[in-house]
Design brief:
The chain is α/β, with parallel strands linked by helices. The protein has 2 domains: about 40 residues; about 280 residues, Alpha/Beta hydrolase fold, catalytic domain (Rossmann fold, 3-Layer(aba) Sandwich), CATH 3.40.50. Helices cover about 45% and strands about 15% of the residues. It is built from 11 helices and 8 strands. It has an 8-stranded mixed beta sheet with strand order 1-2-4-3-5-6-7-8, sandwiched between helices. Strand 3, helix 2 and strand 4 form a beta-alpha-beta unit. Helix 3 crosses helix 5 and helix 6 crosses helix 7. The chain is globular. The N and C termini lie far apart (about 60 Å). About 35% of the residues are buried.
């Protein structure tokens, strides 16, 4: 009897160990299956390695570019979710550009901190069905609504959303983050190489030699783009809707803004327009910070902390 007892105990221990490990793996697979059924999609191979589940090209609305990627940490307690929107002047770009360089590093660090990531595309202004930039901005609203509706099944905490974007994507983040109609679950906004308003006449306050009406007369291609952008003439009614800066108040989500372009003049020595300066000048960031100070809104930037530190601090409030 004594010669059998030790092996029997050892076998029993090994059986329990193997069984418990297989149960854990099976449970993970079952949870992923539940997610796949709820989302109507199959988990995919991610663009980089990590402890998360990845869903590619989920449809959040019916348009051809209404697609998003979802990174969901394998954690029982997800701290929040960051919704990214790529740049491209509302004319080009893709969500895949955020899987490169510093944005890839930021996404990986967010996932390591048990923060979910959503990376969205949106309708361009030259799409046949677009109603100017309004469609692009409202696509951002649809992304927020889609993720809110799926929050329970995704195990996401309520009211722990961060909106983040680059250039045009920063405009989508700000437009939805500053409007009371869309910002109830938003805690913070990260705007990189951002514009300060989509009432383009406001830009005349930033650049002394900028006249939108003069450019409309002298630059036929810009006139065509402007009419696409505004879905017709830029009326005062449209300007009010698009001037998200005017929506800022002390109760809005905290703002992180960083524009690294420090050139002063958007007109080059060859008398052409430098759109990188016109669209991404530090003057846009200063214009936003000035408004934040006026209304008592919390703001931050690269001079104070990194985007990751801002997101972690904001979600931990």
């Amino acid at each position: 009897m004594s010669t059998l007892k030790k092996p029997t105990i050892l076998y029993l221990f090994l059986f329990i160990l193997i069984y418990s490990c297989s149960e854990k793996t099976l449970q993970d697979e079952e949870e992923i299956n539940v997610l796949e059924i709820a989302l109507g999609a199959t988990a995919q191979t991610p663009p980089f390695e990590g402890s998360f589940v990845f869903f590619k090209d989920l449809s959040y609305a019916t348009g051809p570019r209404n697609k998003l990627d979802l990174f969901l940490p394998k954690s029982e307690k997800i701290k929040g979710v960051v919704l990214f929107f790529h740049g491209g002047a509302f004319l080009f770009g893709t969500k895949e550009t955020l899987y490169e360089d510093e944005f890839k590093d930021l996404i990986e660090k967010l996932l390591d901190e048990n923060i979910a990531v959503v990376n969205s595309e949106y309708t361009f202004i030259n799409d046949p069905d677009a109603e100017g930039v309004f469609t692009s901005l409202e696509d951002g609203t649809k992304v927020i609504q889609f993720i809110k509706e799926k929050s329970n099944i995704l195990n996401l905490p309520e009211n722990q959303f961060i909106l983040a974007g680059v250039s045009a994507g920063a405009g989508i983040a700000q437009w939805n983050g500053f409007r009371e109609e869309t910002n109830s679950s938003i805690k913070g906004i990260v705007a990189t190489i951002a514009q300060s308003s989509y009432d383009l006449y406001q830009w005349e306050q930033l650049f002394p030699n900028f006249s939108l009406d003069r450019l409309r007369k002298t630059e036929p291609e810009l006139e065509e783009l402007l009419l696409r952008f505004y879905n017709g003439e830029p009326t005062p009614e449209k300007a009010i809707i698009l001037d998200y800066r005017s929506e800022m108040d002390a109760d809005d989500p905290a703002l992180y803004v960083y524009n690294p372009v420090y050139e002063e003049n958007f007109i080059t020595s060859e008398n052409t327009i430098d759109f990188n300066v016109l669209f991404h000048s530090y003057k846009h960031a200063d214009f936003l910070r000035k408004k934040a100070i006026e209304v008592g809104l919390e703001y931050s930037g690269a001079y104070q902390e990194s985007p990751l530190d801002f997101i972690l601090r904001t979600l931990n409030k």
